[in-house]
Write a structure and sequence with these properties.
Layout lengths: L30 E8 L10 E9 L8 E5 L14 H9 L2 E5 L23 H15 L14 E6 L1 H12 L6 E5 L6 E3 L2 H14 L1 H17 L3 H10 L11 H21 L5 H9 L8 H9 L13 H8 L9 H14 E3 L15 H11 L6 H15 L9 E6 L20 E4 L17 H19 L13 H11 L2
Helix pairs in contact: 1-14, 2-3, 4-5, 4-7, 4-8, 5-9, 11-13, 14-15
């Protein structure tokens, strides 16, 4: 999630950008509105407030029910109120549809800037408090004369927003009827080498063993080249770095490896659509491009949109960009999410595992240094580890799934190791792991699925959530033909 933040504006990589909006199925334009919410939900003596932005579409509302598409670490936009799975759920349940913006992101700005002092109210506890206040407001008489008073509430979230949907059902069960978490990590963890292990397996499975081997060969050859001044110059030229590589600086080298190479593969796999990975591997292994694996790797890396206009490998430049405290700075969103990882989650995607081809190029200490330099006079590893322990203690990690939460992960989602799998499922908290798909694929519309398993999973989700919202014993989603695997899931987990 946060490590992608250190690439420059065109690089989105692994912070969770707003999922690309679905094809709209309505011409209705959602309304932008604002709600005054408390700055600190846990101190009654603090009466400070700020304006929280949300979007609203009531064209499907013919009941008191509401569906909320939960915003994560991004600026919200209208597209997700005009199509997608949340829209289909609202249509089925005749519900109003809302999209909430997370505090500090987008135009929801509780403070005048993002200094370390100002960021003390940026944490998931307060963000969940915002959602709770929002739900109470929409269900009250003060919103459209009580139009949705006491209605059922469904939350739909992807990635970190999916984590929030789960945690809302845990922390505020009296306000949330049912929640869907698509690709939501629940277990906070400092070192996250499993991320690159899943990337490697996806490259091997959807690409080839030769692809993984070629990457590792290239990495070994790059390491050898960096041992000489001529080799350093060649690597800089091949990979189009924004400035000359400084092979004597461990921080600059880690920045190059991380932002230049590892993150490019992370973006490929995390947001893969059918054909993306085979296409990349075909180029990386194509000997007609070059007999040199370094040249083949550089050719593919430098052709990606995430490495344009150049790879910024200078650590000092990255620090300067991410210590700008203006909300309008190009790296503002990256700075904000980085802060949350430094004090709440970790999830640092290191190369400390031997089950990946990127050697030992990005150590855990690299991320510690980033937190230290981005947030001076605040961060140390004791704070990070205390914050991670607190997150897991408050929200139970993977040891407890709240009832009436549906969790979905892709078999090739690099975040899946931190998310629930079928061993964590209960009768009232079903979990689906869909083979061969990646991150946040279940929130997209039905009839827009890479595989039959994904399509059937979406329909089972709609059926289950509609049943909990409306009390109906069946819905339009119940007429699909289920694959044997999903039929087993349905028997085990979805029959109430």
């Amino acid at each position: 999630m946060w490590w992608c933040f250190f690439i420059f504006p065109t690089v989105l990589a692994l912070r969770d950008i707003e999922p690309p909006p679905p094809t709209p199925v309505t011409r209705n334009t959602p309304i932008e509105s604002w709600l005054t919410v408390r700055l600190n939900h846990f101190d009654a003596s603090n009466t400070e407030t700020f304006q929280m932005r949300y979007l609203y579409n009531d064209e499907l509302a013919n009941s008191t029910n509401i569906v909320i598409f939960v915003g994560g670490e991004w600026a919200i936009s209208p597209g997700w109120l005009t199509g997608g799975l949340a829209f289909e759920l609202a249509e089925s349940a005749q519900a109003a549809l809302f999209y909430t913006e997370h505090r500090y992101y987008g135009l929801t700005r509780p403070t005048s800037e993002t200094s370390v002092h100002d960021l003390r109210y940026l944490n998931v506890d307060q963000a969940l408090g915002d959602l709770a206040q929002f739900i109470q407001h929409v269900r009250s008489d003060s919103f459209e004369n009580g139009r949705y008073r006491n209605g059922s509430v469904a939350l739909v979230g992807c990635s970190y927003a999916g984590s929030m949907a789960t945690w809302m059902r845990l922390a505020y069960p009296h306000l949330v009827t049912v929640a869907l978490s698509d690709s939501g990590p629940l277990h906070a963890q400092e070192n996250f080498p499993e991320y690159l292990e899943v990337i490697t397996e996806a490259l091997r499975s959807q690409g080839s063993e030769a692809c993984v081997t070629s990457i590792e060969d290239a990495m070994r050859n790059i390491t050898a080249l960096l041992a000489t001044p001529a080799g350093v110059q060649r690597v800089s030229q091949l990979f189009n770095t924004c400035g000359p590589l400084e092979a004597s600086s461990p921080l600059d080298l880690a920045t190059f490896y991380w932002f230049g190479i590892t993150e490019t593969f992370a973006y490929l796999v995390q947001y893969a659509t059918p054909g993306d990975i085979p296409s990349a591997c075909n180029r990386i292994t194509n000997s007609t491009i070059s007999s040199d694996p370094v040249e083949r790797l550089a050719s593919w890396i430098t052709s990606q949109s995430t490495t344009q206009p150049c790879i910024e490998s200078r650590y000092s430049v990255q620090v300067a960009a991410h210590t700008n405290t203006s909300y309008d700075s190009p790296q503002a969103t990256m700075r904000l999410w980085t802060y949350q990882t430094c004090v709440e989650y970790g999830w640092y995607q290191t190369t400390t595992s031997s089950r990946q081809p990127f050697l030992s190029t990005v150590p855990l200490e690299y991320f510690h240094q980033m937190c230290t330099d981005f947030f001076p006079n605040l961060f140390d590893t004791a704070l990070l580890r205390s914050g991670i322990a607190r997150t897991n203690k408050l929200f139970a990690g993977l040891t407890h799934l709240p009832d009436h939460v549906i969790s979905v992960s892709g078999g090739h989602d690099p975040w899946a190791p931190m998310a629930p799998n079928t061993t964590h499922a209960t009768h009232l908290a079903p979990v689906f792991v869909v083979p061969d798909v990646s991150h946040c694929r279940a929130i997209r519309a039905t009839n827009n699925s890479e595989t039959e398993e994904l399509e059937n999973t979406k329909r089972r989700i709609l059926q289950h959530m509609d049943r909990l919202m409306t009390g109906r014993t069946e819905s339009g989603a119940s007429n699909i033909i289920l694959s044997p695997i999903l039929l087993v899931f349905g028997i085990l987990y979805l029959v109430l």
